[in-house]
Amino acid sequence: MISIEYLAGFVDGEGCIDRCGWGGNRDIPRLRISQVYGDKLMEAIESQYGGTLSRKKKRNNIKRDYYTWTITGKAATTLLKQLLPYLWVKKDKALEVLG
C-alpha cells in the first residue's frame, strides 16, 4: 500500500502537475509521473489511485523503456486535494491547477 504521504513525496520529486485538454478546453487538471526503473511502483500507484499507466519506448538520452502514470479530470482534482497537505516542492503548482 502506497500512502498519500509517500505519493506526495514522489510527486514532489518526479511529478508534473499541469492542465491539459483538447480543442478549446485546455483546463483539465492533470498529474503525471514518469520513471525509468519504476514499473512495479508505478503499477502499484495505478492500482491504488487509478489513472493510466503506459510504457514508453526509450529515446534520445534515455537508455531504457520508461513508464508514465497519468491521472486527469475529476480524479486528478480529488487526488491533488488529498496530496496538497503533504506537497512541498509542487504545492504552489497544485494550488494553481486547482484554482
Give an account of the 3D structure.
By secondary structure, this protein is an alpha+beta fold. Helix content is 41%, strand content 31%. The chain is built from 4 helices and 4 strands, in the order H-E-E-H-E-E-H-H. It has helices spanning 4-14, 39-49, 73-83, 91-98; strands at residues 15-22, 25-35, 52-56, 66-72. A hairpin with a 2-residue loop joins strand 1 (15-22) and strand 2. The chain starts with a helix and ends with a helix. The mean pLDDT is 88.
Features:
globular, alpha+beta, four-stranded antiparallel β-sheet, 99 residues, 31% strand, Endonuclease I-creI, 4 helices
Outline the secondary-structure elements.
Blueprint lengths: L3 H11 E8 L2 E11 L3 H11 L2 E5 L9 E7 H11 L7 H8 L1
Antiparallel strand pairs: 1-2, 2-4, 3-4
| DSSP helix fraction | 40-55%
- At the fourth level of CATH, the homologous superfamily is Homing endonucleases
Question: Strand share of the residues?
Answer: 25-35%
- Helix segment count? 4
What Rg do the Cα atoms give? 13 Å
Largest sheet: 4 strands, antiparallel
- Distance separating the two termini: 30 Å
pLDDT < 50 runs, ≥5 residues:
none
SS-based class:
alpha+beta
CATH topology: Endonuclease I-creI
Strand order of the largest sheet: 1-2-4-3
Top-tier CATH class:
Alpha Beta
Could you say which overall geometry the principal axes of the C-alpha atoms support? globular
Count of separate structural domains: 1
